[in-house]
Design brief:
Concanavalin A-like lectin/glucanase superfamily protein; 7-stranded antiparallel beta sheet; 2 helices; mainly beta; 9-stranded antiparallel beta sheet
């Protein structure tokens, strides 16, 4: 008679190392398959279309978070960017939200004189800023004026670093004047230093400007962008050149000294060099303002 009983030792299943590897591989493949083929949630276009759009209307100075933002830079000294910086404003938050860049920083506030107003108006799927109409009063000091202005932040001074800055603009010939500043930091006179995007003269020429302590450099193509259509304007400063790009095409460039440093205690400004008389007030619409310091 045979004894069919097995010893406790022989009763244990034997698993080879190869079997363990095969099992682990199969489990991993299964998990990978689940990860790869798990259906993604579908959001109906009809649902997206029904969502409320940010509110257009008059900007009245919604500055929550603005006062809490500390100015970067001490009195008597001006710093420069120590690392790359990227700032972009789309203005798509609506009139009930503070105007900040896409990262929720670098807040802007509206400043105005003589009843000037800024409005957020529909533009594509978002919003753009509409500036006061071109003033035709004989006494310029009575003209309505309005701009967007930030706080001093020396991290936005490029120094001699390469940078790109620009905006999208919509203008007609009725919006033109001798000066229409789109986006700037600093001034071109008084030894302050500056970078600026503008659309000047009655010809509607866009131009890029950078200024050091003693000289102004301007890249200006002989083309008209005040034609009632949106145009994307970009200024690019490389080590020794300033280039104007319009709608993705290089249109003008000028050499600049590699040692020219842009560093000032002024804030970012959009639509003019200030709210006071002689501010080179912009008229028309502005969208997608940005600054990239490399």
């Amino acid at each position: 008679m045979f004894d069919n009983r097995r010893s406790s030792r022989s009763a244990r299943p034997r698993v080879s190392p190869f079997g363990v590897l095969v099992a682990a591989a199969a489990l991993g493949a299964g998990l990978l398959a689940v990860t790869q083929f798990t259906p993604k949630p579908h959001i109906s276009p009809q649902y997206v279309a029904l969502q409320p759009r940010p509110s257009a209307g008059v900007l009245t100075g919604v500055t929550s978070g603005f006062a809490a933002h500390q100015q970067r830079g001490g009195a008597g000294q001006v710093g420069i960017a120590a690392a790359p910086v990227a700032v972009r404003y789309t203005f798509d938050g609506g009139i009930h939200q503070p105007i900040t860049d896409l990262g929720g920083a670098y807040a802007l506030r509206p400043l105005a004189q003589n009843g000037g107003t800024l409005r957020l108006v529909p533009q594509g799927k978002g919003l753009a800023v509409k500036y006061p109409a071109r003033c035709t009063l004989t006494r310029e000091r009575r003209c309505p004026r309005a701009i967007l202005e930030g706080l001093r932040d020396d991290r936005l001074n490029p120094g001699t670093r390469p940078m790109q800055y620009g905006a999208s603009v919509l203008m007609t010939h009725a919006d033109l004047s001798d000066g229409a500043n789109v986006f700037q930091k600093g001034y071109s006179v008084g030894g302050v230093s500056q970078f600026k995007l503008q659309v000047d003269h009655k010809q509607g020429h866009p131009s890029c400007v950078i200024a050091g302590r003693a000289r102004i450099y301007r890249a200006e193509p002989f083309m008209d962008v005040a034609d009632g259509r949106w145009h994307n304007l970009m200024c690019a400063r490389s080590r020794n050149r300033l280039t104007m790009v319009v709608d993705g095409v290089e249109r003008a460039s000028v050499p600049v000294p590699a040692t020219l440093s842009i560093a000032n205690a002024e804030p970012l400004r959009v639509g003019g060099k200030g709210p006071n008389k002689g501010n080179d007030q912009f008229a028309g619409q502005i969208d997608n303002v940005y600054l990239t310091i490399n």
